[in-house]
Design a protein that fits this description.
- The protein is 36% helix and 17% strand.
- The termini are far apart.
- A seven-stranded mixed beta sheet has the order 4-10-9-8-7-5-6, with helices on both faces.
- Strand 2 and strand 3 form a beta hairpin.
Length: 394
C-alpha cells in the first residue's frame, strides 16, 4: 500500500515540489502534522489564514450559509451580496467592487479594466496601450498576470504573452518616469513585494508614484492580495504612505482561510468602463463566499488583529534584528511580515526551524519569509524568536 506521499505524488502534477510534511489539523496560529507534531505556522498560506486556522466565527458563517443557499448566478440578485459589497467598499473607501474568486483573477480583471479605461477614457489605441510593472513583482500565474512578471523563469515556455508591458526597478522613481508616455494606461505594484523577498520601497516612493499617476492621468493599481487586510500592521499596506490607489486588489485572507474570494475595488469613474457583457465570473460574489468573507472581515476588526500585527510585528522585527550572525545580510519587515535575507541558501535553515517547531518557507533562494497568522500571541512570537535565533546565531 502506498504511503501518503507516494499516493499523492502518483496522481499530482509536478508543478510543486513540497516538503515531506503533511498537515492534518490547524487551530489559530498552530498546525499539527499526521504524526501529531505541533508547529507554529509562519507561512499561513501566504496570508490566506490571517485570521488563523479554522476560526470558529468564520466556520459558523460557512455552516449557516451552506444550509441556506450557496450559489446564485449573477443573472439574479442574492440576499447578501449587497451587504458584503457595502462592507468591503467602506473598508477600502471605494464606491464599487467587482468580486472574483482568486488573486490572479483579480489581477486579470484589473488589467482588463486598465486597458478599457485607457481606450474609453484616455483614448489610447488598443494596439498600443501600455502597463508598467515593477521588477521583482509577483501577480499570479495566469497568462495575463504572468505577463506582468519580470522573472523569465516563470514565463519560459508559456509565450507569447501580452505585449506592451514595461518594468521599472522597485523604488526607482527616475526609471519609472522614463517609461511613462501618452500610451501608459496603468502602473501596477505591490506596496511591499512578497514573493520578491519582502522588499520595502524607499520612503515616499509610493507617494511619488501617486503623484506621477495624477500628473499623467494614469491608473495606480495596488496589489494587496498578500500584504493587505492587516498583514503589515495597517489594514492596507498603502496606508504606510497615506496613499489611495485607483484600484485595490484583494484576495487570500478575504476568505478567512476557508473559501476563495477576491475583489477589485475602484470608484465609478474607473469601474464604470465595465458594462453588461464586458466581464464576468460564474462563482464571483456567490452567497457562500460573501457570508464567509463578511465574517472574516468582522474577525479582523473585532479581535483587533491589525493592531496585534503592528505590536507583535514590532517585537518580532526588533528581536530578529538583534541576532548576531555572519549568515544574515538584513532583517526587514512591517507588521507580521518579515524577510530574513541570508548570504547563502535559506532552505536548509528553514528545514532546521521546521524540525524545531516553526513552519517557514524560503523565497528567492536566500530569504526566509516569516508571516504567521495575525491571531498569534506573545508567547508564540517569543517561541518563534527563540527558534530562529537558535538556528541562525552562529
Amino acid at each position: 500500500m502506498l504511503d501518503l506521499y507516494e499516493h499523492t505524488d502518483k496522481y499530482s502534477s509536478k508543478n510543486y515540489n513540497p516538503l515531506k510534511l503533511a498537515l492534518a489539523k490547524g487551530r489559530g496560529a498552530k498546525v499539527w502534522d499526521i504524526e501529531g507534531n505541533c508547529y507554529i505556522d509562519c507561512i499561513s498560506g501566504f496570508s490566506v489564514v490571517n485570521q488563523g486556522h479554522c476560526h470558529p466565527k468564520i466556520i459558523k458563517a460557512f455552516q449557516e450559509q451552506s444550509q441556506k443557499i450557496t450559489m446564485v448566478s449573477r443573472a439574479l440578485y442574492s440576499d447578501n451580496l449587497g451587504k458584503w459589497e457595502e462592507k468591503i467598499c467602506k473598508l477600502a473607501n471605494k464606491e464599487s467592487v467587482l468580486p472574483m474568486n482568486t488573486g490572479t483573477e483579480a489581477v486579470e480583471t484589473a488589467m482588463k479594466m486598465a486597458r478599457k479605461w485607457g481606450a474609453d477614457i484616455k483614448n489610447i489605441d488598443e494596439a498600443s496601450s501600455e502597463i508598467i510593472a515593477m521588477n521583482g513583482n509577483f501577480h499570479g500565474r495566469t497568462l495575463g498576470s504572468l505577463s506582468l512578471s519580470s522573472q523569465d523563469s516563470y514565463k519560459q515556455g508559456f509565450g507569447p504573452l501580452l505585449n506592451n508591458i514595461h518594468y521599472a526597478d522597485f523604488g526607482d522613481i527616475d526609471q519609472l518616469k522614463q517609461l511613462i508616455n501618452d500610451r501608459t494606461a496603468a502602473i501596477i505594484l505591490e506596496p511591499i513585494q512578497s514573493e520578491g523577498g519582502v522588499n520595502i520601497p524607499p520612503t515616499h516612493f509610493i507617494k511619488e508614484v501617486r503623484q506621477l499617476c495624477d500628473e499623467h492621468n494614469i491608473l495606480l493599481v495596488a496589489d494587496e492580495i498578500q500584504v493587505g487586510l492587516g498583514r503589515t500592521g495597517k489594514m492596507f499596506a498603502m496606508e504606510w504612505e497615506d496613499v489611495e490607489p485607483d484600484i485595490y486588489l484583494l484576495g487570500k485572507s478575504l476568505g478567512g482561510g476557508l473559501y476563495p474570494i477576491s475583489a477589485v475595488l475602484a470608484n465609478q469613474d474607473v469601474m464604470g468602463v465595465l458594462t453588461p457583457g464586458t466581464h464576468g465570473s460564474t462563482f464571483g460574489g456567490n452567497p457562500l463566499a460573501c457570508a464567509v468573507s463578511m465574517a472574516a472581515l468582522d474577525v479582523l476588526n473585532e479581535e483587533h488583529l491589525v493592531q496585534n500585527a503592528l505590536d507583535l510585528g514590532e517585537r518580532l522585527l526588533k528581536q530578529l534584528q538583534q541576532i548576531e550572525s555572519d549568515l544574515i545580510v538584513e532583517v526587514r519587515g512591517r507588521g507580521l511580515f518579515i524577510g530574513i535575507e541570508l548570504k547563502t541558501a535559506a532552505q536548509v535553515y528553514c528545514e532546521q526551524m521546521i524540525n524545531k517547531g516553526v513552519l517557514c518557507k524560503e523565497t528567492q533562494g536566500n530569504i526566509i519569509r516569516i508571516a504567521p497568522p495575525l491571531v498569534i500571541d506573545k508567547e508564540e512570537i517569543d517561541e518563534v524568536i527563540r527558534v530562529i535565533t537558535e538556528v541562525l546565531e552562529k
